[in-house]
Amino acid sequence: MSKKAKHGLDDVIVKLFQPLYRLGQPHVDGLAHVDLDRPALFVANHTALGVLDIPFFYIALRENTGVRLRGLAHKLGFKSPVTRALLHSLGAVEGTRENCHELMKTGEHILVFPGGGREVSKTKDQKYQLLWQERIGFVKMAASHGYPIIPLASVGAEECYDIRLDRNDLLKTPIGSWIKRVADRFDHVIKFDEIPPLLVTGWGGTILPRPERFYFKFMPPIETKHVSPDDEIGCQKIKAETKLALEAGIADLLSFRESDPLRNPLAAKLRALK
Known about the structure:
Number of helices: 10
Number of domains: 2
């Protein structure tokens, strides 16, 4: 997709979500860490269900800095026409090393979620946990191109829905073990631990997301220029540093939210209309 075409599409996304952005008044911190003259790899935590908060920190970054993110998305996101259209409109591409390499060659600012589908498909007891397993590919790509890593913490979307039924509940049913065996056999399609929540409820017990204020924090950049992509130990250290920074950002936002008088401005406005 050309830059011109991609920018035309993300203009549509901005116009579509901007009213909700204005109404919800997301809290954004740490924008001073974004260097406009140097492209970076933004490493974020995936929230449950994965997509609610993305347009909002996309808009926050674009409106305040002019940076247009190019996301690396899970291949399953391109299977559905709806999610494929949304991902394309945000300038996202399938998260392969080849695609990442091409984006970095042209100096794009890139967004990646190391937790991938596993982190989107959280169970009830995994709220705001980073589920990265052994993945260090994002560090190797950053090191290959001398990209700094900017951890991006996101809080708020996990409260928009309550998970009522997840894969752990499925395992407790008479057919649970059979489903797991089938999933393990066809794990090239979807892994069992990437099965999304089976039942979620939002506002008033409906499928509508509960109105919540979103909180974003950009952490100080982590340099990768001193590490070779072939240095496994060095890459693991940068991954650990990135994970600790992101966890600290999430903790800071959760703490800030506790005393935030504007935590739920959308709900307050809706109550005022009644």
